[in-house]
Amino acid sequence: xxxxxxxSKMTRCFVALLTLVFLAFGQLPxxxxxxxxxxNVLQFATPAYGLYASARMNGRDGLRACATAVGVTALxxxxxxxxIDAPRPNGGTRGFPSGHTSAAAAxxxxxxxxxxxxxxxxxxxxxxxxxAYSRVKAGRHTAGQTAAGFLxxxxxxxxxxxxxxxxxxxxxxxxxxxxxSLNWRFAF
Length: 188
Hints:
Layout: H1 7-24, H2 28-33, H3 35-84, H4 99-115, H5 119-137, H6 143-161, E1 169-174, E2 180-185
Antiparallel strand pairs: 1-2
C-alpha cells in the first residue's frame, strides 16, 4: 500500500492509514465521541505518517531527520513539563506544553519542512489541530498549553527536515575576477 511518492497519492495514503488506525481502535463514531481516545490515537498516527512520508520522500536521510525531530520534540516537551509544572484544567500537573499535540505537530512539521504546503501536509496539520482540540475538549489541557505544544512540535519538525527540501540551496562561488559570492535560495 502507498508505493508512490506523488503528493496526491500520499494524501490518499494518509487518509487510508488513519482510517485503518481508527478501525483498529474501534468504530469511528465511538472514537469521535471519546475526545481523549481520539487524541491518544492521533498523537501516534500523525508522527507515524510523518516518518513514513519522510522515508518515502528522502529515504534514510528523511527518516533519520524526522525521527530526530520526533525524539527532540518528546525530550523538549518532557523537560518543559518538568521545569514549568503548570496545572491542568482537570487538577493534574505537568500540563505545559501538551505532549500529545507536540508529538502530532512534529509529524506535521517534518512534512512541511520537506515538501512545503501540499494536500498531505494540510491533512497532517489538520490532524495536529484535531489532536489539540481533543485535549482541550477532554479537559486535559488549556488552549494555550496545546498551542505551545503545536508550536514546539511543528517548529522542531520543520527545522530538522528543512535541509532536505529540494528547492532550498546554498551556493558559494568564486568569479574569474576573484570575487566571492554566496547565494541562498529557498521557497516556502
